[in-house]
Every structure is written in C-alpha cells, then in structure tokens.
Amino acid sequence: MMSLNINGKNLRVEAEADTPLLWVLRDELHMSGTKFGCGMALCGACTVHIDGQPTRACVLPASAAVGKKITTIEAIGDSAVGKRVQQAWAEIDVPQCGYCQSGQIMAATALLKAIPKPSDKDIDQAMSGNICRCGTYPRIRAAIHKAAGQA
Amino acid sequence: MMRRLCLLLCMGLAGPGHAAPDKAAAALFDPVASVVMSPRCVNCHQAEAPRQKDLGVIHAQQVVRGKDGHGSAVLHCAACHQASNSAQGKVPGAPNWHLAPLSMRWQGLDKKAICQQMRDPARNGNRKTGEQVIEHMKTDPLVLWAWNPGAQRTKPQMSHEEFLKVLETWADAGMPCPE
C-alpha cells in the first residue's frame, strides 16, 4: 500500500514495494496507454516521466516513485510542449503499428522541454533507447523538428 | 633556519615523490590492478560512453556520458538503472549509477597509467592521502555492486575483503606504481 502522484492526482495503490510501476499503471489502475515491450528496459515502450525525466516503468519499483511526480502518456497533452508533440505526430502521421509510440512521445516531449531546438545529435542521444520495430525513425525525427518549430 | 631547511630536505627525500620504487613495492599495485582493470570497473571508467559485458562493448542505445556523467539530457543512466538490480538481475542497478568523472577515465590506460591516475590529486578528485584514495573502493555502493552483480556477471578475481587488504597495503606503502 502506497500513495503515488500520477498525472497530478494522489492515488492509493495496493502494489508491493518492488512491483514495477508499469504493472501498477496497467493492471491496477487500468491506464493502458503505457505499453509493455521487453520488460528489461531495452526498448522504451514503457517510458513515463518521473519528475520530468524519461524512465522505464517496467524496471522502476513502484516504491521508488513515491513522493515523485509521475506523468504518463494519458496526461502528456496537458503540457504545451506535449500538445505540440502530439499535434506534430498526427500531422506527419508518424505511427505505423503504434505500439512504441507512447514511449516515443514521452521521450520526445522530455527532449523538447530540456532542449527546445534539438539538433539531430540531440535527438539521437535522447531517442536511441526507444526502439521502433516498424522503423518510423525518419518520421519521428521529422515530427520532433516540426514540434520544435524547425520544420 | 637550518632545522627548517633540514625538514624540507627530509620531506623532499622521503615525501610522496614516487621516485623509482623498488620492485617489491611496485608489485603492490598488481593485485589492485587485477580488480580495477576488471570489466565491472573499467566499463564505467570510460571517456565518452560506458561499456557493457565482459567484452566491453559500447553501451547499446547510444548511451553517452553527458555533461555530468549521468547520461544525455533526457536519457539518464537512471532511466533504466535503479537502486538495485531489476528484471531478475538482467538490468544492473546500484544507487547513483553513473560514469566515473572524466578525469578518472581509464579508457586506453595500462596498469601503470591507472596507478598514476589514482594517486594524482589533479585527476582523482583531489584525494591526497592513501586513505582518501582507497575510500571509494572500500565503501561506494557502486563499487560494492561489482561483488554482487547478479545475472552470472563476472566478478573481480578476489573477494572484497581481500581487495581491502591489498588496497591498504598499497596505500600504506605510499601508493607505489609499476615502472
């Protein structure tokens, strides 16, 4: 039993301390926007923000998120930058199968908050932990530049 | 005046000049090197990017040092590396997972050069005494993780207890380095 601040709301959850946050989000709170990919922090599908930093929810013990601000894909559009990223994603039609895209958008939003006008190198170093099996990388890059107002 | 001069001279002769240690003294670093040159240590004492596995392959996901050794602006080490191992040990974890400071990189260095880095206050975080130099290796949770790395990762050749002994012997001898 612990209290987590998720998308601005304090929620009591029943999970054990070492249960990965991803399980809490998906199974207990039924917030299924954050995806399970590899379960080993290798693919980025489960990316959420912990105090603004992209973090892999599949390996983060829920107890490690206590007292921190958790943001998930469900609320990313509440911020101006997140909204811009979503719009750019829709305009460029980035997703193919879509499975990785929650994580991609979480990583891209954090990038643009930290570096408003990222170079291609900044994008590489921020996004390389987010794998896309469909290979939508060129569109992801274009959408990040578009959201940054550079394209 | 003479006493002060004598004191200065004596300090100069007996001080930490590290000039031409005898063979036995220089060999005191060998067992230390057998640990610090293991992949569990060297993989994070790198310049621009950490390495992985016993082969020391460049870290996947284009992980980089970033401005403070904790990764790029939004791909921090802590995005994946938690306070302890996760995913049944497959993802290593210890508190404050990060690269060694750039001045303490061992990438491309041999045994002698690593020894010289370790005792050089300009490159070792201004640690001046032997005790200060070996403190990180005695107590830092990130170092201690190397003896309990999980997932069948290779451990250093000797136990941490034995490592403490060889460290102290080396520090007590004035941190001699191989020629």
How are the elements arranged and paired?
The complex is a heterodimer of chains A (151) and B (179).
Chain A: E1 2-6, E2 9-13, H1 21-28, E3 47-50, E4 53-56, E5 69-71, H2 80-92, H3 101-114, H4 120-127, H5 137-147
Parallel strand pairs in A: 1-5
Antiparallel strand pairs in A: 1-2, 3-4, 3-5
Helix pairs in contact in A: 2-3, 2-5, 3-4
Chain B: H1 2-14, H2 23-26, H3 29-36, H4 39-42, E1 51-52, E2 57-58, E3 71-72, E4 75-76, H5 111-118, H6 130-139, H7 141-144, H8 160-172
Antiparallel strand pairs in B: 1-2, 3-4
How would you describe what is shown here?
The complex is a heterodimer of chains A (151) and B (179). Chain A is of the alpha+beta class and 151 residues long. Chain A folds into 2 domains: 2-74, Beta-grasp domain (Ubiquitin-like (UB roll)), CATH 3.10.20; 76-147, Orthogonal Bundle (DNA polymerase, domain 1). Helices cover 36% and strands 14% of the residues of chain A. Chain A has a 5-stranded mixed sheet with strand order 2-1-5-3-4, with helices on both faces. Chain B has one domain (22-172). In chain B, the strands form 2 sheets. In chain B, strands 1-2 form a two-stranded antiparallel sheet. A two-stranded antiparallel sheet of chain B has the order 3-4. Chain B is globular. The model of chain B is unreliable at 5-17 (pLDDT under 50). In chain B, helix 6 packs antiparallel against helix 8 (160-172). Chain B has 179 residues and is mostly helical. The A-B interface holds A 20, 39-42, 47, 53-56, 58-61, 64, 107, 110-111, 114-115, 122, 124-126, 128-129 and B 60-64, 66, 72-76, 78-80, 82-83, 86-87, 90-91, 93.
